[in-house]
Each structure stands twice: as structure tokens, then as C-alpha cells.
Amino acid sequence: MCGIIGISSNKSVSASIISSLKKLEYRGYDSAGIATLFEGKIKEVKSEGRVDTLEQNFDLKNLKGNIGIGHVRWATHGVPNSVNAHPHSSDNVSIVHNGIIENSTILKKYLIKKGHVFKSQTDTEVIVHLITENLKTNELEEAITQTLKQLHGSFALGIVFKDIPDLIVGARRGSPLAVGYGPNENYLGSDSYALKSMTNKITYLEDGEFCIIKKDQVLFFNEDGTKINKKILELSSDDASYEKGDFKHFMAKEIEEQPNTVKTGIKEYVDKPNSEINIYNFPWKIDEINSITLIGCGTAYHSCLMAKYWFEELTQLDVSIDIASEFRYRKNRFKKDKLYIFVSQSGETADTYAALDLCKKNNMKTCAVVNVIESSIARDANFVLPIHCGPEIGVASTKAFLGQILILYILALKLGYLRNEINKEIYKEKIKDLQNLPGLIEKSLLVDNDIQAISSTFNEAKGSMFLGRGFSYPIALEGALKLKELSYVHAEGYPAGEMKHGPLALIEDGMPVVVLAPRDSYYKKTISNMQEVIARGAKVLLITNKSKDEIVSENIWETIEVENTNDDLLPFLLTIPLQKLAYYSALKKGYDIDKPRNLAKSVTVE
Ligand code: M6R
């Protein structure tokens, strides 16, 4: 997490740094800071809280200097306050850092013995003093190479020097970093989004590389300090997607964009006239893959779980799923005939990236289902299936979830057909149903009035449960995650059939329980489980699909009916009211919907 910006220009940089930091707040927002070089001195300003607070606390218009670095933080080492905020500076060096320095305690002891005085509780401050120390006996490039070798852990760094005042050094290991090119100025950013308003010409640093950025020149080096050449990429610009428009929050906008997300996904992968799925350049023969493992974190993990149900329904493949932070440290049995699928909106999640890296080191077949196609995960996987849903800015993942499950469903359908595990008729029928999905999502979005009224009950309760079976179980988990993430109320997702093995003890009079019971093959079983919680006093919000058959149950508190489609596709529609429930609960509480407390959009630390 955390966001970095650096600018070397022929004019004052503070205004551009502030506006980039505001864009970067999705990566962390518990403190912010800037350092510029002016008249042979490092000028540093930093404060706890958002960039707005930094602006209120300091006269940033008068923060002069043509070279500067800025940072927004998501705290790892040390509480979020102004002392621990970045940049961290010595007399000669100022640094912004994303990542974690694992050997900071050992390095700190060594540096204290050398006479360095530490001000903060952060791991980052050791880098400042280490470089300062190494610069005593080395030229810049050697000092950087030496410092990077001494650091264990992950980092993206932006560094400025009082005594070398015309440049910024950037370095990367494990945390992403991009360089941008502008007229009479060049930039450093923790992602291309931070640089987008200034340039669409970007170079990504690879692990181990560092760069020296001057206003009219950028030099790249590998970890030994040898100069290297790197490509400049041109990014497409789509500025409207980065604005809220008429919406109050990005999350509201992103929920409403979902018919379009799904329409675009279908357009990219489905040949409508021929009712055919096209996955171009798939690098393996179908009989080379006998099993699949899907890996992700948070919402992306729920997409993996959803996909497991579909792969098992539509193919005979052996399918397992894993949370990336567990997978990366377990003793995995790597298999040559297995496809490892990494699901991530940002493509930068540290645990998911590390799991991919592990598979690559073991020469496994890797596929990335990502939104950000310039991301590290997308660049490093053997094969990429982009979800094409445009920038997702709200910390809570909404349209990316639908985008991920759409692409995974399409892949399952195609593999099932190619492996002769579903017949042509069913295959074509399911593709036809898929074409109607955007329209059905659009209609299912019209639940605002009902959900607004219901949301207060969830806010007032001690906790709530979200239950589902089969295809609805991953959606129950996702609904509970959305509610706790945004409204800070306890919410538990559970397989409905598992309640009697313990969680039923939590049910008490008036406890809100969401039951996802579409009229699929699990319907009757789920309704029985619903009766069990109603009998114990739960206030049940039943979410089902429209049907001519009446619901055979009494004492249901509220019912919401989404549109009707085939069983496979119902999860898309069931997701919508749950996203809105979380949104309206947080709205009523007056919480910061796009930036919930303690979280960040892109989790680039483990
Ligand atoms: O960028 P990723 O999809 O890899 O992010 C994974 C999770 O951090 C993310 O889905 C998180 O759980 C969301 N904030 C949930 O809404």
C-alpha cells in the first residue's frame, strides 16, 4: 500500500505533487507528506490524516522547489501520525517508501552505533540513514547499489538528495514503481494512475532495478548498477472513468456501471453472431490441463470460490482454490498439468503476486484474471484474461467482482465445451443466456428504495449473518465482506447448511439474517435452513429470483426478488442488492464510503 509521487521539473512542483497525492489516496490515507529541494535545502511538510489536512496545515503554495517527492501512507510500522508520515529525512537525504524492510531492527542497531539518530518508529527511516552512511564513501550509483543489497524485504523508493539537487532516485523490489515522461519534466509514481493527468508515456521498473530521474533525462540500472535500456509504453487515456460524475461516491457509480462491465466483458470474449466464445492465444493445448487452482485475496478470493462451483458444474476438471497469503507459505504440490489462475482487480496485491512468483519459479502454467493490464501480475503471468471494467476507485470492490466472475464463467464454459464435457446445445444455450445478462443486471439495480429502508436494521444490530448454499454461498461471503468493510458492523457469511454445526447459537431475537435462496437446485434445502433461523428469532431478508411459484414460507421479514435467468447466472443478480445494502448502511452512518477506515484499495504489503 501507500502511494509515491516524484517530479523533477524546470518549474515549481508542489501543486502537481498535491494533485497526484489526492489521486493516490486510494492506496492509503492515514498520513501524507511532501519534501522539495529549494536553495540547497530539503523542505519537508507532513501531517496525520488526508492530503486535505496537509493542505490545511501548511501553506503549500509557498512550498518552493523544482524537485520533490510526496507520499500517502497506510501504516505498517508505527502508528499513523505526523512523525511516522513520509518523507523521512536526514540532513542530506529524503525518502518516500512503499513496502516493508524486514531487517530494519538489525540495520537500525548498526546505524545507531555509527551515530545516526532516529526520529520515527518506521522501518523506512533505516533506508535514509543507510544511504546517508553509504554516500560517505561512495558515488551515488554505488551508494544506491550497496544500500539496496543491504535491504531485505519489499520496497518502492523515491529519494532526493540535498547535495545532488538535480535528480530523484527510484528503486523497486516487490512493490510497483513507474516512471513517466513529460515536457521538460519527468516523474516517478507508485502506479501509472498517479501520473495519468501528466503523461501517458510510462516505463515500469522491474524488481531489482533503479533509476535516476532528471528533468530532461531518465537513466535505468539493474541491481548490479549496470546501465540498461527500457521500453516506453503508451497508455490509453480515459479520464472520464476517473471522475465521479453526478454520483455521490465512486462506489455508487461503480455499482451502476455493472451492466456495462458485463456488456463489455461479453463483447470482448463472445462472438455474438456465431454464439461462440473466443479466447485468443490460449498458450496451452486443452489436454495439457487436468486441474486448476484459483488464487486471490478478499473479494477476488470470493470470485475464485464462485468459479470453483462453475468449473465443477461445467467441466470434469479437478478444481481447488486458495487464499494467496496461505498458498504462498504452504508446502504446495506443484503439478505440470495444472493451470494456476490468479485473480486480482489491481494486479498488484502483494500476496497474490508472491503466489504467482512462486508458481513461476516452479515453472507452472500461470494465467492472470486482472483489471489493470499494466500491472505486475498481468505482466508476469504466462497468459492474461483482462476483465475490461475500467478503473475501480472505491476501496470496496464491486464492478471488478462481477467482471472477474464473468470472465471465469466464460472460461469454464469454453473449457467444458472443448473438453466435450458439455454438449454443443447446452453450450450455445448458455451463451445465449449470457447475452441477456446486462439487461437483467440493469433491472436488478432498481432496488434502492427497498434496500434503503432495510439497511437501518443492519446498522442497529450487534451483528448479522449472510447465508447461501451452492452458487449462492460465495455471494453470501461477498455480501458479508461488503457490509463489514463499509459499515463496520459485524457480518458473517456462512453456508446455510452449516449453521446447525455451531453458528446457530449466535441467532437471537431480531438478529438480521440475509438468506440467498434463488429457485435453483438448492432452493428447498436453503428454505429449510431459513426456517431454522426464523424459528430462533432471526429477522430474515430473503433474496430470491422472480418466479410464478409462491414462496412457501412464513414469517419472512422482507423479500427482494431479482430478475430470473438460468441457475449459473443467478449469482450475478444476487450480488446487486448486497452491494447496495452495504452502500446504504454506510451512507446512513455517514462513513467515508470510498475510503473505509484502516483499508486501502491496493494492498501491496503482505
Ligand atoms: O486488487 P485485488 O483484487 O487483488 O484486491 C484484493 C482485495 O484486497 C480486495 O478485493 C478487497 O478485499 C476489497 N476491498 C473488498 O471489497
Can you characterise this structure?
This protein is of the alpha/beta class. It has three domains: 3-237, Glutamine Phosphoribosylpyrophosphate, subunit 1, domain 1, CATH 3.60.20.10; 244-443, Glucose-6-phosphate isomerase like protein, domain 1 (Rossmann fold, 3-Layer(aba) Sandwich), CATH 3.40.50.10490; 448-589, 3-Layer(aba) Sandwich (Rossmann fold), CATH 3.40.50. The chain contains 18 helices and 27 strands. An eight-stranded antiparallel sheet has the order 3-2-4-1-10-9-11-15. A seven-stranded antiparallel sheet has the order 5-6-7-8-12-13-14. A hairpin with a 3-residue loop joins β5 (88-89) and β6 (93-101). α3 crosses α4, α9 runs antiparallel to α16 and α15 packs across α18. The longest helix has 21 residues, at 424-444. The chain is globular, with a radius of gyration of 26 Å. It starts with a strand and ends in a 17-residue tail after the last helix. The model has no long low-confidence stretch (mean pLDDT 93). It binds 5-amino-5-deoxy-1-O-phosphono-D-mannitol. 5-amino-5-deoxy-1-O-phosphono-D-mannitol is lined by residues 297-300, 344-346, 349, 352, 395-397, 481, 485, 602-603.
Please specify the SSE layout and strand pairing:
Blueprint: E1 3-9, H1 14-24, E2 31-38, E3 41-48, H2 51-57, E4 67-73, E5 88-89, E6 93-101, H3 104-113, H4 125-135, H5 140-150, E7 153-161, E8 168-173, E9 178-182, E10 185-189, H6 192-195, E11 201-204, E12 210-214, E13 217-221, E14 227-228, E15 233-234, H7 250-256, H8 258-269, E16 270-271, E17 276-277, E18 291-296, H9 298-314, E19 318-323, H10 324-327, E20 338-344, H11 350-361, E21 365-370, H12 376-380, E22 383-386, H13 399-418, H14 424-444, H15 448-460, E23 463-468, H16 473-487, E24 490-495, E25 512-516, H17 523-534, E26 539-545, E27 558-562, H18 570-589
Parallel strand pairs: 18-19, 18-20, 20-21, 21-22, 23-24, 23-25, 25-26, 26-27
Antiparallel strand pairs: 1-4, 1-10, 2-3, 2-4, 5-6, 6-7, 7-8, 8-12, 9-10, 9-11, 11-15, 12-13, 13-14, 16-17
Bound molecules: 5-amino-5-deoxy-1-O-phosphono-D-mannitol (M6R).
